[in-house]
């Protein structure tokens, strides 16, 4: 039986984590697939023992990025027109006028948004983007590669990258089936859909309904529910260290129980160090009540700032920093990529900490995979680094509306509220939170969680053999 040659279009670290560091390739090879990473990242996938073709020195058309920016905001305006819900304005980014080039692009984008904010306008923007991308050397290069390699399908590992448009257009124009993976639970309301493919893979029935709602041009038979490979690591028991080995490896006190503080980036949570200090003060008070607790601090992988340093120094007897294992491939933040070891590290943190606390993060689902609860901060700091920032705006985002119930998380509603909520966890009085969080997880990600890679390959097989036509 001839093998299917599957091109995985790889554009970022999320794609690496989901498809190179999971069981995905092994599952594909079991099913007689010849998998090739069509790689536009700086990471050498061949170092993992996988086949790759690098996409190097290829650029999008000079106007495409501006058209993409306009398309995103027009999409959000259409969502507002359709729903009457102004929350979609929260997903818009500010325009830059720092340089003449940036100012010109911003003014052009704003003009396009003003004149094309309609369903018909969206169609025109897609038409313009595709027209200009087909004029690039990038598109010509991709066509030549595809004509030479003759893959059975091109699988795009993320729907949001403008760099993926030319390769996918080249494949479609050659009659090669294309499929895109919607990589995150919050992406569809944010209007991050940049690509148009023949098929789409989503996490859940809930996400399928979102895709049909936000993009009515997509038909139901183009969407397959698979789940995501990103959580599979939590079900690989052979990757877990014993408590003793993990504590020894990271200089943790074996007599303490630890709470994980999972940091956000500076845009998402500009006051993150103050929330970390509030947690440290609560732990200090609890330890005076004869508890023996500590904090494992895991920073956002792309946050290399010094903004936490003062808090870490002040509470060095309580806080132990365990940094993510990500690797920079250049000075740009978007070339800081995850490693396979980091997935194992994070799984062990979730296994050996009592809970995680943060601001609205998907780490809730990582920890619930280990039967551990999550606490979300839900109050503003008295003195804010950014007075215009509001934590309550965060929890109004559309993806939080999928929450099974308010009890899916432990809400931390003020500094004085933290002590009792953590004490309840330590005393095993949080079962209702875990049960609700698990139901939320089941809603937003297809279960069994550890079978996502298998389901994706089953979907690819249906696409390549034409059984979905």
Provide structural commentary.
This protein is an alpha/beta fold. It is built from 17 helices and 15 strands. The strands form three sheets. The chain has a seven-stranded parallel beta sheet with strand order 3-2-1-4-5-6-7. Helix 2 (24-30) packs across helix 17 (452-464), helix 3 (64-83) runs antiparallel to helix 5 and helix 6 packs across helix 7 (165-173).
Key features?
3 domains; 15 strands; Rossmann fold; 469 residues; 17 helices; seven-stranded parallel β-sheet; alpha/beta
Task: Briefly summarize what is shown.
The protein is an alpha/beta fold. The chain has 17 helices and 15 strands. It folds into three domains: 4-60 and 136-228 and 449-464, Glycogen Phosphorylase B (Rossmann fold); 67-122, no CATH class; 236-444, Glycogen Phosphorylase B (Rossmann fold, 3-Layer(aba) Sandwich).
Strand order of the largest sheet: 3-2-1-4-5-6-7
The CATH superfamily of the largest domain appears as Glycogen Phosphorylase B
Q: Largest beta sheet, briefly?
A: 7 strands, parallel
Strand content: 5-15%
The DSSP helix count reads: 17
Percent of residues in helices comes to: 40-55%
Report the strand count: 15
Mean of all residue-level pLDDT scores: 95
